[in-house]
Amino acid sequence: MPQRTETDSRKLLRRLRDEMSVSQPGQERLDRITTIISDSMGVDVCSIYLLRDPETLELCATEGLRPESVHVTRLRLGEGLVGKVARLARPLNTANAPAEPGFRYMPETGEEVFTSFLGVPIQRLGERLGVLVVQAKEPRLYSDDEIYGLEVVAMVIAEMTELGVFVGEGTSFAATHKNPLLLRGVTAQEGEAEGHVWLHEPRVVITRLVNDDSRAELKRLEDAVAQLKVSIDQLLVTAGSRDKEHQEVLQTYRMFAHSRGWMKRMEEDIRLGLSAEAAVEKEQSTARARLETVPDAYLRDRLHDLDDLSNRLLRILTGQGNHTGAEMPDRPILVARNIGPGELLEYGRRLRGVVLEEGAVGSHATIVARALAIPLVINVPRITTEALTGDHILVDGTEGQVHLRPDDSVTTAFRDKMAMQAKAQERYAVLRDKPAQARCGTRIRLKMNAGLMADLPSLPTSGAEAVGLFRTELQFLARENMPKRSELVANYARVLDAAKGKDVHFRTLDIGSDKVMPYMKRPDEPNPAMGWRALRVGLDKKGVLRMQVQALIRAAQGRPLSVMFPLVATASEFTRARDILMREVEREDRLGHKLPEVLRVGAMLETPSLAYAPDAFFKEVDFISIGGNDLKQFFFAADRENELVRRRYDTLNVSFLTFLQVVVDRCHASETALSFCGEDAGRPTDALALAGIGISALSMRPASIGPVKSLIRRSNLNEVSELIARVQARGLENARPALLDYIATLVE
Ligand code: PEP
Ligand code: MG
Asked: Residue 59 carries which DSSP code?
């Protein structure tokens, strides 16, 4: 067979392009393509295998194999040489196919007479679609140019499939982006939502695959890369030295953008006949396919960087920005690889839910999603490649899973579940103005957690008596630079206005750990959760703490004010923080500002150490709020953000309850007001146990108030308390089973 030249590839691509422009049924088009390829490459066989489902390849068209085997021959992924190409997403080139490990003889195809084999994956952006194979009787190895040329053709076929060209009568290929998919991830915010996908970074649509003039196309690529380099350099200047991680990513971008290897491969693709954008996407596809097989986290990150860079380049080449002109669908569900808090806040309340390919339970995005009270599922593999803007999607935040393009039965079941929850919410609405008074007569104060102005409208409708925790850091996180004092004053004043006289516990800045302000230099810490965070930062960087308390005092304008400090580990830390606050009160007084009518200063108990602080501390502090999320992580030494351990220890573990009782007893002895504001307060069974051991104020997300109130009103807290005491006396490890049995006996 003669060696093929660059011009052959170009001719072949042109013929394929012409073929694409003719309207004909999918099967005929597939058949024509195999004929054109075998003809142009001078081989005996050309076959197209497409994935019928994620595990099965089907011979969909062939020139040279027996026609009866079309739609009959099937292979599992990894089976035979074709299956191997699909699984490894790499070309396989052999002069003696039957001698190749894994060769599988398929009598129906009559392929034993063909000795040489070249198979290349058909893939798009890391997504397997099938395999393109050429075979010949003559035992020969295919040249690098031929392999490359066939890969380029496979790329064009992948794009055609993507465009739905093959979908038609008689074609078994189930088009990608059409199948229903169930994807499992991790719950970051509970709740359910139905809606339509809104891709945060929509895929660039490539309409021109083949070029007419390679030279002009090479120039387009060169210009686009030059523009890309300039934009990265600009980003590097803007990033400055503030954020080391951001800098590192940009430096990697820069390295790739200047990489000759990357450029050379794309130039080669263009010489073979691809358009510049198709060449960029081909390299992007190869990198994504590699991503799946790279176990090393660092390398995976770098391949992700290359992916991002390719997207930027594609946007430059096609002129498609983030806004492709697509209308945001109704009931939008945001789908992204990851998203910052600022961007998420910009979408705000328009969103019904969020699905992320990456993300972390304690990340900013999670905090914002919580504040927006929309379900969030994170770590959902492949969601950004599988989903298209406008796709129907069901987000099950409670189960941590996502149904993409669900079929009718799944949708019906999901809607039933949502309807049941809505019914329950209606039942809870009836309780809105009723107290959380247990059958024994004890009243529990239910409060809500908030962090954004947007949360405040829920205050009257949720049935909460107060805001037990206002996380002030959100205003600091979701922006490019430190807010000014005047902005803080305005914000806090609006919060107090919206609370209409109900108490608001403002927590001073709780940054550090996962909550990073983009504009503040952050030390490299081996374990940030136990590092320089929360009040520790406040005491070292007094300027920020002072500015914040000044703003709170001014915002109160004489109204009562409650301030609490996060992560107080020792009594002296509290005293120092309170002294800073009191000095500011004096200063504000001197400056002639109105002082709060009542000022209450509290501490968040989030480390076991504070439970054993001297009596004087309990007398000195106006109130204590247990930050159960952090307290639990430090009590059990189990990172709250680490999926491997975060659910390992139960809040109703008797050791933890016994420890909490120590805090309750100390607060009772000193008559210090005590509340609990971790996530567990919003889980009805857990809330009941907390109330049972004597914690009489619970602060939770607004949607939990109804369910918690309903359960407390049906319970007798004396019985709960006795039950926990019995579990302790019997030496059991966990009070949950007994408590669940008890709840089952309660009348609805
Ligand atoms: C907590 O730790 O329980 C808490 C309420 O604070 P955060 O979740 O913001 O750390
Ligand atoms: Mg905390």
From this structure: E
- In whole angstroms, what separates CA 298 from the centre of its chain? 19
CA 511 to chain centre: 21
**Which of the ligands is closest to the CA of residue 567?**
2
392-404 mean pLDDT: 93
SS3 at position 334: strand
What does the alpha-carbon distance between residue 535 and residue 542 come to, in Å, rounded to a whole number?
10
Q: How confident is the model at residue 322 (pLDDT cuts 50, 70, 90)?
A: low
Distance of alpha carbon 362 from alpha carbon 640, whole angstroms: 8
What 3-state DSSP class applies to 117? Answer: strand
The DSSP bridge partners found for residue 92 are: 119
CB 343: neighbour CB atoms within 10 A? 15
Distance in angstroms (rounded) separating the CA atoms of residues 91 and 93: 6
CA–CA distance, 258 with 125 (Å, rounded to integer): 22
Q: Could you give all domains of the chain from N- to C-terminal order, each with its CATH number?
A: 6-162 (3.30.450.40), 181-202+324-409 (3.50.30.10), 214-318 (1.10.274.10), 448-605 (3.20.20.60), 623-748 (3.20.20.60)
**What number of other Cβ atoms are within 10 A of residue 358's Cβ?**
17
CA–CA distance, 458 with 404 (Å, rounded to integer): 30
Which residue in the block uniquely carries the two structure tokens 């001073």? 508
Both tokens assigned to 370: 């919580």
Q: How confident is the model at residue 171 (pLDDT cuts 50, 70, 90)?
A: very low
Residue 704 vs residues 191, 680, 709: alpha-carbon distances, Å = 11, 10, 8
Name the residue among 408, 394, 374, 409 with its Cα closest to residue 183. 394
Tokens linked to 674: 């005590």
Residue type, 104: R
**Predicted confidence band of residue 378 (pLDDT cuts 50, 70, 90):** very high
Q: What is the pLDDT of residue 598?
A: 97
Q: Given a cut of 60, is residue 242 above it in pLDDT?
A: no
Q: Are 13 and 156 in contact (CB under 8 A)?
A: yes
Answering whether pTM is above 0.90, one says no
Question: 3-class SS at 423?
Answer: helix
Q: Is the CB of 455 under 6 A from ligand 1?
A: no
Give the whole-angstrom CA distance, residue 348 versus residue 326: 19
Are 75 and 104 in contact by the 8 Å Cβ rule? The answer is yes
Is the CB of residue 587 less than 8 Å from the CB of residue 627?
no
Pocket test of ligand 1: the residue of 471, 639, 683, 699 to mutate, having most ligand atoms within 8 Å of its CB, is 471
Q: Quick one: which atom of ligand 1 is closest to the CA of 473?
A: 9
Reading the block at residue 41, the tokens are 């490459």
Residue type at 545 in one-letter notation: L
Average pLDDT, the chain: 87
Cβ of 716 below 6 Å from ligand 1: no
Closest-CA residue, ligand 1 atom 1, reads 627
- Is 174 in a helix, a strand, or coil? coil
Vertex 8, ends 7 and 12: CA angle to 5°? 115
Cβ contact 589:550 at 8 Å: no
Q: Are 211 and 275 in contact (CB under 8 A)?
A: yes
* Closest ligand 1 atom number to CA of residue 469: 5
Q: Is the per-residue pLDDT at 175 higher than 50?
A: no
Helix axes 276-293, 297-318, angle to 10 degrees: 160
pLDDT at 369 over 60: yes
d(Cα 455, Cα 471) in Å, to the nearest integer? 11
d(CA 635, CA 280): 51
650 CA to centre of ligand 2 in angstroms: 17
